[in-house]
User: Which sequence fits this backbone?
């Protein structure tokens, strides 16, 4: 895989021109692509080093009180952006590894373990199951995230999956699609600690990959934590760069 070529294509197709989503609005404002609504996010910009301090201060003021996530990849510019974000009060999350699977080169085939059923969910009860598994996996509870997922039920760019053991939700993950584009993203994959090591996470990756393939996608992407990166690399994903979220605290 040509990392620079794939990253350039991802930037152009997904970051600079993200697909529409229910509940959010995207607006270009003087070199920054803002996402507002169900969540606040900046994932693409065109300003240079000389403008960084002024632009970051403007965005911090605009989103003050409501929280903001600014996602920065290692290949992004300007070079002074991370220091500028820190100076403006943004807090750096742990870095993750941006990994990509080219499904033209590597196929995913992973059956669910015995006694595990992987289902696509499409109603509020399914979202609650997804969040129950996710909260147990990551040790967090975020009611606003639950409502954001519910608000997007029926959105063709979102698919939600839950793995069940005897009717109990034990693992979950999300698939984000971009119609007409080559990339699909895997998000939120996690398994309850007592069910880890059984191949459930791998089965969820394969199930989501199969759906992405049916939708015409070539590449699967993941912002991988260190707990999942080795598993994904064994499945054929390749590490292309590092990515870090910078969070402006939500004061509400």
Assistant:
């Amino acid at each position: 895989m040509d990392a620079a070529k794939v990253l350039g294509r991802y930037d152009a197709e997904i970051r600079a021109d993200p697909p529409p989503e229910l509940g959010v609005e995207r607006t270009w404002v003087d070199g920054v692509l803002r996402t507002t609504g169900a969540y606040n996010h900046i994932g693409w910009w065109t300003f240079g080093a000389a403008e960084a301090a002024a632009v970051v201060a403007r965005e911090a003021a605009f989103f003050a009180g409501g929280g903001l996530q600014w996602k920065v990849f290692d290949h992004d510019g300007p070079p002074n952006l991370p220091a500028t974000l820190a100076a403006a009060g943004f807090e750096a999350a742990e870095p993750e590894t941006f990994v990509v699977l080219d499904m033209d080169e590597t196929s995913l085939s992973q059956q669910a373990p015995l006694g595990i059923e992987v289902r696509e969910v499409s109603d509020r009860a399914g979202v609650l199951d997804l969040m129950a598994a996710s909260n147990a996996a990551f040790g967090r509870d975020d009611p606003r995230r639950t409502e954001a997922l519910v608000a997007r039920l029926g959105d063709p760019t979102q698919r939600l999956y839950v793995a069940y053991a005897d009717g109990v939700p034990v693992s979950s993950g999300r698939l984000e699609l971009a119609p007409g584009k080559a990339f699909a993203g895997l998000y939120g994959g996690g398994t309850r600690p007592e069910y880890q090591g059984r191949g459930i996470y791998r089965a969820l990756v394969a199930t989501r990959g199969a759906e992405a393939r049916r939708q015409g996608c070539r590449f699967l992407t993941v912002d991988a934590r260190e707990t999942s990166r080795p598993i994904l690399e064994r499945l054929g994903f390749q590490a292309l760069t590092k990515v870090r979220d910078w969070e402006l605290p939500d004061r509400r």
